[in-house]
Specification:
The chain is mainly alpha-helical. It is built from one helix and no strands.
């Protein structure tokens, strides 16, 4: 649709463009969810934006290779904030 007048754009072209944008949005949301998961897993020892930093000061050393951290869906405030997020469907 870019560069064309609205009158010369067909419904089929508009639907195709919408599908392209929806695919791009889905891809971006998947990337955001993946990066958010990595962030939450890697920051569990030292604190992060969700759990904070002051209350998470360890009194004992953390294991060098922690087990896979289970992240609650409530903790995924970034990837779940979109109106088109899979969690809102």
């Amino acid at each position: 649709m870019r560069g064309k007048s609205l009158r010369s754009t067909t419904l089929e072209e508009l639907l195709e463009e919408r599908n392209t944008y929806e695919g791009e949005i889905a891809s971006l949301q998947a990337q955001l969810a993946e990066k958010e998961q990595l962030y939450l897993e890697s920051s569990w020892q030292n604190g992060n934006i969700y759990i904070g930093w002051n209350s998470n000061m360890p009194t004992t050393p953390a294991p060098p290779h922690p087990p896979r951290i289970l992240i609650s869906p409530k903790e995924k405030m970034f990837s779940l904030s979109s109106l088109s997020s899979p969690a809102t469907q």
